[in-house]
Design a protein that fits this description.
By secondary structure, this protein is of the alpha/beta class. Helices cover 41% and strands 12% of the residues. The structure holds xylulose-1,5-bisphosphate (XBP) and magnesium ion.
Amino acid sequence: MADLQALIFDVDGTLADTERDGHRVAFNRAFAEAGLDWDWSVELYGHLLAVTGGKERIRFYLDKYNTGFQRPDDLDGFIADLHRNKTAHYMSLMEEGAIPLRPGVQRLLEQARSAGVPLAIATTTTPENVSALVASTLPSGALDWFTVIGAGDIVPAKKPAPDIYQWVLSEMDLDAKSVIAFEDSSHGVSSAVGAGIDKVVVTVNDYTREQDFALATVVLDQLGEASTPAAVLDGTAVPPDGVVDLDYLRLLL
Ligand code: XBP
Ligand code: MG
């Protein structure tokens, strides 16, 4: 059994349910401010999540769902401006405390810190968004709980490509077989597994529940607290009392 060297967390959908009431709302506010009549409904946004990365998602929307839009000559610049404004709106939403952490997240982060197990982040979202979420949900200075934060355009290819997990593993000089990744989506699992991580704990949400998680180690509805125990949706490793803790994770490894 390898020694557990780090826990690597995805952000959107895993640390917090940020997509529907955070990112989606921020995109729509940026569109309205730019005078665009685009409105990403809860349902449409579920389809748009097929592509990770906000700039990439806007382009996908134009290619697939809004082909009649008269594109400006500098489409890249247009999308970059829209996305910059979307990030500002997202950060404001986080400052207002719009989205809490998912059950069990803070408990597990704190347990790992106490036990000296390093924490890291591997996400496709913009780095400022990670800082804003952490600042609005965890104690002051909690960004420093994470040894490495891999986010956004730091790698050229976003999930499901393995690049962001490879980057985090390389920055921390870690063997992929000695870490556990936490994800909410099949793209995230593909990214982690592609980087050689074969222990991936999935906590699903409403957008990802029906996805294919054949490559995940275990699929849960949440990390669990004593008062709200986690349910196993797929896999044989049942967390004792429905609470994902370090003992359980070490057994997975
Ligand atoms: C999250 C994403 C992100 C956010 C939007 O995927 O795809 O793009 O939706 O953030 P994952 P930005 O949880 O797999 O990392 O607009 O900052 O890209
Ligand atoms: Mg995610």
